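hiii so um. not sure if this is the right channel but i have a protein structure encoded as C-alpha cells and i wanna go backwards to a sequence. like what aa goes where. can anyone help
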C-alpha cells in the first residue's frame, strides 16, 4: 500500500474513532458504499479492515455485495460458505468466517446465488448475524453495492452503527 493511501486509511480510521467519541457510542459496525460502481469501496473496505486488525482490533469484513462480490477475490481466497449459509442453512458464524493472513482479521464471504438479497437483508436472521458479529468482533466492516445501483446498501446502513460513502477522486 503506498504511503499516501496508508495515511488516508489511518485518517479514516481515526475519524471513525472521533465519531465514536462525539456520538458517545462505539461505532463497531460500519457500512462502506459508493454512489456508482468502480469508486474503490471494496478496496477501501479491505484496507480499513486490515488497518483496524493491525491496530489490535479483532475485525470482520463482510462482503455483502451479492451481485458483484470482490473482497474474497482481492484477498485471494477460494469461494466458501458465507452470509447466505447463515441465512438459508442456519450455519453458525464461527463456522463460516474465514481467517485471513492478517492477525485478528476475518472474512465473511457472500454468496451470489441468493435469489432475493433484499429479502435476506431485511430478515431477522440478517439482523441476528450483525448482532452476533458485533458481539464477537471489535469492528465489523460491511462492504455493500453502490447506492445508485441497488437498495441493499441503504438497507444495511440502517442496521449498522455508521456509514461511509467512498467517492472516486477527481470524478
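sure thing!! here u go:
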Amino acid at each position: 500500500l503506498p504511503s499516501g493511501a496508508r495515511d488516508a486509511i489511518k485518517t479514516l480510521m481515526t475519524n471513525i474513532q472521533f465519531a465514536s467519541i462525539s456520538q458517545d457510542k462505539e461505532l463497531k459496525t460500519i457500512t462502506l458504499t459508493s454512489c456508482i460502481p468502480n469508486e474503490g469501496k471494496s478496496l477501501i473496505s479491505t484496507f480499513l479492515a486490515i488497518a483496524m486488525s493491525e491496530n489490535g482490533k479483532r475485525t470482520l469484513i463482510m462482503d455483502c455485495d451479492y451481485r458483484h462480490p470482490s473482497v474474497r477475490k482481492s484477498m485471494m481466497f477460494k469461494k466458501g460458505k458465507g452470509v447466505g449459509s447463515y441465512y438459508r442453512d442456519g450455519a453458525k458464524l464461527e463456522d463460516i468466517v474465514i481467517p485471513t493472513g492478517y492477525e485478528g482479521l476475518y472474512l465473511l464471504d457472500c454468496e451470489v446465488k441468493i435469489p432475493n438479497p433484499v429479502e435476506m437483508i431485511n430478515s431477522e436472521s440478517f439482523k441476528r448475524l450483525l448482532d452476533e458479529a458485533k458481539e464477537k468482533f471489535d469492528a465489523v466492516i460491511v462492504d455493500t453495492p453502490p447506492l445508485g445501483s441497488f437498495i441493499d446498501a441503504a438497507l444495511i446502513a440502517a442496521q449498522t452503527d455508521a456509514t461511509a460513502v467512498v467517492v472516486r477522486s477527481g470524478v
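oh and The two ends are 22 Å apart (CA to CA).
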